Amino acid sequence: MRDTYAQPLARDAMAYVLAGGRGSRLYDLTDNRAKPAVYFGGVSRIIDFALSNAINSGIRRIGVATQYKAHSLIRHMQRAWNFMRPERNESFDILPASQRISENAWYEGTADAVYQNLDIIASHAPKYMVILAGDHIYKMDYELMLQQHVATGADVTIGCLVVKREEAKGFGVMAVDANAVITDFVEKPENPPAIPGDPEHSLASMGIYVFDTKFLFDALRRDAEDPNSSRDFGKDIIPDIVKNGKAVAHRFTDSCIRAAEEIGEYWRDVGTLDAYFEANLDLTDVVPALNMYDRDWPIWTDQVVAAPAKFVHDIEGRRGMAISSLISQDCIVSGAIARRSLLFTGVKMGSYSSVDEGVILPYCNIGRGARLKRVILDSGVRIPEGLVVGEDPVLDAKRFRRTEGGVVLINKAMIERLK
């Protein structure tokens, strides 16, 4: 619950989203797009969650640092996020790595991606900076984190998750005292420090940081002068503050957004194909763990102008149906059936075809009689008539990319090789 302030702290804040990463563990899905630009949830992109959290929290100045194969991401943001109005003291800056500091230097790390744009940030004169990762799925009120930051007098406040100690080995992990002051910060430790009084769990960093702007600028300038720095928040900036300043942990459970039927807090790193697949299918549950229908905390995105979804034919064996599925605009399910699947914009399913547990990205075409199970289709894929996927693991692995969890990823190049 928010405290009562004469003016929300978010009005004096700028959100800075780090969206330059490839996401190599998504393999072919990120061959031509950065991880934050990957489609999610039927209508959205991954980056829409961090940006929507900022807008819904009351932040009206936003910067997004891009780098790896950024065209798809930039095009999406230009279309979906062009409603900010300068006359209302709002701004939305897309900040590609552009060798602004040196003619041969791209963004060298997460901290450098902020440092290279200090002059642009300064032109907006924010009092606080909220640094965000652009590649996670969650709903969070950053105003509550800002309030804790101010109330504790922290130099940096770090968003954190409570995770099992074994799972914490893949995160930046915090050791804290009884007042949530961080006493140590280690990246991907073999023996993660436990939460005081809870030996089975650790506090893992979400990659969300709140700073007073002046303090952040000073820290980044010092880091830029250090020839031994890797220019990274988790490896350099944060450990230095923990050692020489005051770093405080903010638990996600204190600011996560839950609609009435959402029981627990929902945060996912969809950095692997299996995790991406399962997070999408989470949305097909009768009561999903993540509520995309919450009108009080909408996930903003590009609203495509298109016809409604259409289901045609109604005879036995050739009936257009969708069960426990999300079907987007401009889809045509023609005498076919989708079960526990997501059909993104413009998907066409031919007669007698079926998809069971599928994440079908925009403008795919599934030919007559095809049977697909536990699949991800990249955008624009045309599945040949009669193709069967998900029933023969050995054959699937030869023709496509099959994960340890039995999920099959198919892109255009793989279909071309079948011909």
TrEMBL record:
<dbReference type="InterPro" id="IPR011004">
    <property type="entry name" value="Trimer_LpxA-like_sf"/>
</dbReference>
<comment type="pathway">
    <text>Glycan biosynthesis; glycogen biosynthesis.</text>
</comment>
<comment type="subunit">
    <text>Homotetramer.</text>
</comment>
<dbReference type="InterPro" id="IPR023049">
    <property type="entry name" value="GlgC_bac"/>
</dbReference>
<dbReference type="GO" id="GO:0005524">
    <property type="term" value="F:ATP binding"/>
</dbReference>
<feature type="domain" description="Glucose-1-phosphate adenylyltransferase/Bifunctional protein GlmU-like C-terminal hexapeptide">
    <location>
        <begin position="307"/>
        <end position="410"/>
    </location>
</feature>
<keyword id="KW-0547">Nucleotide-binding</keyword>
<feature type="site" description="Could play a key role in the communication between the regulatory and the substrate sites">
    <location>
        <position position="106"/>
    </location>
</feature>
<dbReference type="InterPro" id="IPR005836">
    <property type="entry name" value="ADP_Glu_pyroP_CS"/>
</dbReference>
<feature type="binding site">
    <location>
        <position position="205"/>
    </location>
    <ligand>
        <name>alpha-D-glucose 1-phosphate</name>
    </ligand>
</feature>
<feature type="domain" description="Nucleotidyl transferase">
    <location>
        <begin position="16"/>
        <end position="284"/>
    </location>
</feature>
<keyword id="KW-0067">ATP-binding</keyword>
<keyword id="KW-0548">Nucleotidyltransferase</keyword>
<dbReference type="Pfam" id="PF00483">
    <property type="entry name" value="NTP_transferase"/>
</dbReference>
<feature type="binding site">
    <location>
        <position position="107"/>
    </location>
    <ligand>
        <name>alpha-D-glucose 1-phosphate</name>
    </ligand>
</feature>
<dbReference type="GO" id="GO:0008878">
    <property type="term" value="F:glucose-1-phosphate adenylyltransferase activity"/>
</dbReference>
<feature type="binding site">
    <location>
        <begin position="187"/>
        <end position="188"/>
    </location>
    <ligand>
        <name>alpha-D-glucose 1-phosphate</name>
    </ligand>
</feature>
<keyword id="KW-0808">Transferase</keyword>
<dbReference type="InterPro" id="IPR011831">
    <property type="entry name" value="ADP-Glc_PPase"/>
</dbReference>
<dbReference type="GO" id="GO:0005978">
    <property type="term" value="P:glycogen biosynthetic process"/>
</dbReference>
<comment type="similarity">
    <text>Belongs to the bacterial/plant glucose-1-phosphate adenylyltransferase family.</text>
</comment>
<dbReference type="Pfam" id="PF24894">
    <property type="entry name" value="Hexapep_GlmU"/>
</dbReference>
<keyword id="KW-0320">Glycogen biosynthesis</keyword>
<dbReference type="InterPro" id="IPR029044">
    <property type="entry name" value="Nucleotide-diphossugar_trans"/>
</dbReference>
<protein>
    <recommendedName>
        <fullName>Glucose-1-phosphate adenylyltransferase</fullName>
        <ecNumber>2.7.7.27</ecNumber>
    </recommendedName>
</protein>
<feature type="binding site">
    <location>
        <position position="172"/>
    </location>
    <ligand>
        <name>alpha-D-glucose 1-phosphate</name>
    </ligand>
</feature>
<keyword id="KW-0321">Glycogen metabolism</keyword>
<dbReference type="InterPro" id="IPR005835">
    <property type="entry name" value="NTP_transferase_dom"/>
</dbReference>
<dbReference type="InterPro" id="IPR056818">
    <property type="entry name" value="GlmU/GlgC-like_hexapep"/>
</dbReference>
<keyword id="KW-0119">Carbohydrate metabolism</keyword>
<comment type="function">
    <text>Involved in the biosynthesis of ADP-glucose, a building block required for the elongation reactions to produce glycogen. Catalyzes the reaction between ATP and alpha-D-glucose 1-phosphate (G1P) to produce pyrophosphate and ADP-Glc.</text>
</comment>
<feature type="site" description="Could play a key role in the communication between the regulatory and the substrate sites">
    <location>
        <position position="67"/>
    </location>
</feature>
